[in-house]
Specification:
The complex is a heterodimer of chains A (about 130) and B (about 200). By secondary structure, chain A is α/β, with parallel strands linked by helices. In chain A, about 45% of the residues lie in helices and about 20% in strands. The radius of gyration of chain B is 17 Å and the shape is globular. Classes of the chains: A alpha/beta (about 130), B alpha+beta (about 200).
Chain lengths: ~130, ~200
């Protein structure tokens, strides 16, 4: 995943790990879409990674469709522990989690648990500021 | 020089996780009352076992708890008989997750055949003190009250037949047989604890 993120050279990349069964994920989900709409043109990319099981794919697709997601998203295929370590060794596995990468593709924030629009926006602005320096 | 640079770079990563009890740390002292599903009021101190204590942060709603629950109950019942005190703690706020109400806990307790307490952490402060953040999350203490294992149940929540590493069972067995725990800290996907507001 990090390789994909690095290859796209975004100014800021946000990776949100969510699942259809996760209440706080569903709560924060619209905020991520709003943030993406507001910052996409400024070089911010959003990667939505579902931690649902592959046999729950139809529910995942329905949820994405209901929220008007019309860009590429991802679903976990690996075993849980492999998935955790591929995202980041520092991640405990808690869902939801948001990982934020700077313009060089390095992980800068791992935010475990539900976040607000403001929390993410503040970090996006901070990381964007670094690029303009 | 290369090592120093790497160390400095890693400082730039901010991980917003709460501080969890570390291996070797002591059993926390808290006077908060914990209501068991049999309506009895217990304290954390009264739950402590002479040979060791297993605390599992659990709940009714999380699909990962549901996937592991039969294994958790089997292990808990089995090791309680071997002298390890076992307790499941529900720290979720039922106002956020209605499935985590007290009556639903009672039902689940009966359905699954728990032989150990399943208690309500009515302020979520037990979870805060342990630094537990997800369900299920296990903390195993030895007879002296030192944390000797922290983490998950095994390496495959959804496919019990494909489990290769039984982390918690190995730790419990090592405690009972006075052997070394192979992996004292493990992680797994889990649901966030729905903390009550302070």
């Amino acid at each position: 995943m990090q390789g994909r993120i690095q290859s796209l050279h975004a100014k800021v990349s946000i990776l949100n790990i969510w699942a259809t069964w996760c209440i706080p994920c569903k709560k924060e989900f619209p905020d991520f879409l709003k943030l993406y709409r507001n910052f996409q043109e400024k070089g911010v990319l959003l990667f939505l990674v579902s931690a649902d099981l592959e046999n729950e794919l139809s529910q995942v697709k329905k949820f994405l469709q209901d929220h008007g997601v019309n860009f590429e998203t991802y679903i976990k295929k690996q075993k849980d522990l492999e998935f955790i370590n591929e995202i980041d060794q520092k991640w405990s596995g808690l869902i939801p989690t948001t990982v934020m990468y700077d313009h060089t593709g390095k992980v800068r924030y791992i935010l475990e648990g539900e976040v607000t629009y403001k929390q993410i926006e503040d970090k996006v602005l901070e990381l964007l500021k670094e690029v303009s320096k | 020089m290369k090592m120093t640079r790497l160390a400095l770079m890693s400082l730039l990563i901010f991980v917003s996780i709460s501080y969890a009890l570390q291996i070797g740390e002591s059993w926390p002292k808290l006077s908060q009352k914990l209501k068991n599903v049999d309506e009895q009021e217990l304290t954390l101190e009264s739950l402590k076992g002479k040979k060791g204590t297993l605390v599992i942060f659990s709940c009714n709603a999380c699909p990962f708890v549901k996937a592991w629950e039969d294994r958790i109950v089997t292990l808990g019942n089995q090791y309680q008989e071997k002298g390890i005190a076992v307790v499941a703690v529900n720290s979720n706020d039922p106002q956020q997750v209605s499935e985590d109400g007290f009556d639903q806990m009672k039902t689940r307790y009966k359905e699954k055949g728990f032989k150990f307490p399943y208690v309500v952490d009515a302020t979520s402060d037990i979870a805060r003190t342990f630094g537990a953040t997800r369900t299920p999350e296990a903390f195993l203490f030895d007879a002296q009250g030192k944390l000797i294992y922290h983490g998950t149940i095994d390496d495959n929540a959804h496919e019990p037949k494909k489990v290769e590493k039984r982390f918690l069972e190995q730790a419990l067995s090592a405690l009972v047989e006075n052997k070394k725990i192979e992996q004292a800290e493990t992680k797994a996907i889990g649901c966030s604890i729905k903390f009550r507001a302070k």
